[in-house]
Amino acid sequence: MPEQRIMKLPGRKRRNKKIDFRAMHETERLLRGLGLHTVCVQARCPNISECFNRKTATFLILGDICTRRCGFCGVRHGMPGPVDPYEPGRVVEAAARMGLRHLVATSVTRDDLDDGGAGMFAELIRRLREHDSSLKVEVLVPDFRGDESAAATVALAGPDIFGHNIETVPSLYPAKKGGDYNRSLAVLSCAKACAPGLRTKSGLLLGLGETEAEVVAVFHDLRSVGCDYLSIGQYLQPGRLNLPVREYVSPEAFERYKIKAHEAGFFHVESGAYVRSSYLAERYEQRS
C-alpha cells in the first residue's frame, strides 16, 4: 500500500487530510519531467499537497516570471524569457497522462507581449479541444492591460470557464501593482459580451485590511458585469517580503460572505480560509 500520513498544512487550523505521498510525488515528477510550471508551486499555494495527491494541478503558462510585482503574490517577478511555442503541447500531454477531466490554466502577467499572452491561451484551448472535446477547460487570465481584443481572443476560443481575479477591494488596489479595479471588471464584462453563454469567474482574498461593506460592494460590482462564479479565501503571506496578514477571517465570517454572495446572485460560491480560485474547480460546473 502507498505510504499515507496526516499532512499538517500551514496557517489556520483546518481539517486534516490523509495525503498519499507516493501519488503526490508522482505528480511532481510528471510535471517536472514535462518542463511545466504550476501556480501551485510558483505561488506557494497551501493546497499543493492535497491537489498533487489528487493528481491535479493548475498549469502556469507563459513562463514562471511575472512582469508585475503584486504585494500579495509569491510568483517571481522580473523580465520573462521568450514564449515557448511547444508549451501547449506539453500541457496536453500532462492532461492525458494525469487523466484530467477538468483542467485549469493560468499565466504570469506578460505586459511585455503585444497581446499579453492571449494568443497562447487560445492555442492551448484549441489543442485541448482537439485532444478531448469532453474535457472541461477553465482559464484564469490577467487583465491584458485593458485590451478588449485580447480578452475577446481568449473568450472566443471557447473555454468552459473564463476567470479573472478581482483579488481585493478598490481601496486596497495599490497592492495589485499595475492593476486597475475597473479594468478588471471590464475584462469580465468583455468576455461575457463576446460569448454570452460563457461562464465567468472571479476570486477574492480577504485579510488585507478590507471592511465587510467593501467586500459586499465587490460582490455587487462583479454581478453587474455578469460574473457567475466566485471564490473567497484567506490571504496567507507567501514570503517575508510580501504584505502582512492584517486579519484572520473567522469561519463564521466566511459562511456569512458565502450567503451574501449567493444573495447577490452568484450561481456558485466557495468560501473558506484555504479556498483559492482553482481549488476544487470542478465543483463550480457540477453545482451551478
Average of per-residue pLDDT values: 89
Provide the helix percentage.
25-40%
What class, by secondary structure content?
Answer: alpha/beta
- Class in CATH? Alpha Beta
Radius of gyration: 18 Å
User: Could you describe the largest sheet, including whether it forms a barrel?
Assistant: 8 strands, mixed
CATH superfamily: Aldolase class I
Percentage beta strand: 15-25%
Anisotropy-based shape: globular
**How many discrete structural domains?**
1
> What name is given to the CATH topology?
TIM Barrel
Read across the widest sheet, the strand sequence of neighbours is 3-4-5-6-7-8-9-10
Poorly predicted residue ranges: 1-15
Distance from first to last alpha carbon: 37 Å
Query: Helix tally?
Result: 10
Q: What order do the SSEs take from the amino end to the carboxyl end, as H and E?
A: EEHEHHEHEHEHEHEHEHEH
Can you describe this structure?
It is a single chain. The N terminus is likely disordered. The longest helix is centred in the middle third of the chain and has 14 residues. The chain is an alpha/beta fold and about 290 residues long. It starts with a strand and ends with a helix. Helix 5 packs parallel to helix 6 and helix 8 packs parallel to helix 9. The protein has an eight-stranded mixed sheet. A two-stranded antiparallel sheet has the order 1-2. It has one domain: Alpha-Beta Barrel (TIM Barrel).
